[in-house]
Amino acid sequence: MLRKPQLSVEHMVDDVSTIHSLPLFYSQLSEAIDHPRSSIGDIAKIIAEDQGLTARILKLANSPLFGYFSKIDTITQAVTIIGVLQVRDLALALSVMDVFKGIPEDLVNMEQFWKHSIATGLAARLLATSQRESNLERFFVAGILHDVGRLVMYVKVPEICLELLEHCRATGTLLHRAERERLGFDHAEVGSALLKRWKIPPRVAEPVGTHHDCGKGDQYPREGAILHFADLIAHALQIGNSGEIFVPELDHGVWERLQISSFYLPTLVKQVDATYEQTVSALFGGEDATR
Amino acid sequence: MVHIDNLTPGMVLSRNVCDRSGRMLLPAGAELTEKHFSIFRMWGVLEVEVAGDAIVEETETPPPLSQEIDPALLAQARAEMERLFIYNDPEHPAIKELMRICTERRATRAA
């Protein structure tokens, strides 16, 4: 296959980042959080203006994922208990899920796409817990967003994507390798470029960009490693699908660095299965949020 | 290395047990009791080294698959996993374990 030199990662995200932009709401929220004089009440007020989002955040906060004993029924409570940055991260995940709609079904089934992403997010969050990481929601969000570059590609170059999907099915090739061969970059890089355009912090954008090539990350290698393995778990469990039909190859160096015992894996799988259904129902919010 | 689920009281540690941050919980030579197991769990210790060859050998064979699963379904699930994991080394400890879990999970769900 010949590489087309006029296609670059930047070109891919050029208009996509403006056409498919994050809602104004997210930048307002970020601004309020970063402002030294805003209170929890101010932040809660901004979130509460979006009723759909409010309902989904509360549903998520009350799901077994968080394991709080008391019921969280206001955004103020959620912000206080879960933390401001965590609520922002959850709001980000939910906002992005609404941004990409109307991609043809023959390219990707959006429901399956987000299911794969949610499973990856859950696995990343659980792995991070086992590694005693703090601020767990960034792992969850990175998992939700890890394949977002594919959506950009489906919007921008649908014919090439279709060709790649068919090529992979026919020859049994790994999709991210085929992308790299055909375009010179893969969906991970495109996703990271989009998140940077959206001004998403590098602690999320970098691991998304390196989840198939963990050696490239310089600032957040642990996050990248966790995301890499979480993606593998989601593929192994066959939850949802984002286009890839095989379990991506495990980077053995990443496994060494994570220092996870293989004895932990049965527990991990059990925990992903136990929290998956309720997380999906919280994130999809009952309404038709998947199209 | 023995998984804590496979430990029994009376086993003797052949190496210090430390938590994730490296703090020692129990020194080599200590005899294990039920109380230690809950302490290990509390501090996230999943495996320890104990003295005696017989015990180590025993844990090297993977835990037997559940008897109730139909062998035909299991074989089908196994074949499916081999296809899915084609780009991975089936002898790598993490991949091996993941394939085992997923085979069993898939077969159970198909039943």
UniProtKB/TrEMBL annotation, chain A:
Pfam families named in the record: HDOD (PF08668)
Origin: domain of life: Bacteria
InterPro entries: HD/PDEase_dom, HDIG_dom, HDOD, RNase_Y/CdgJ
PROSITE patterns: HDOD
Domain HDOD: 19-214
NCBIfam families cross-referenced by the UniProt entry: HDIG
Protein name per UniProt: HDOD domain-containing protein
Annotated organism of origin: Geomonas subterranea
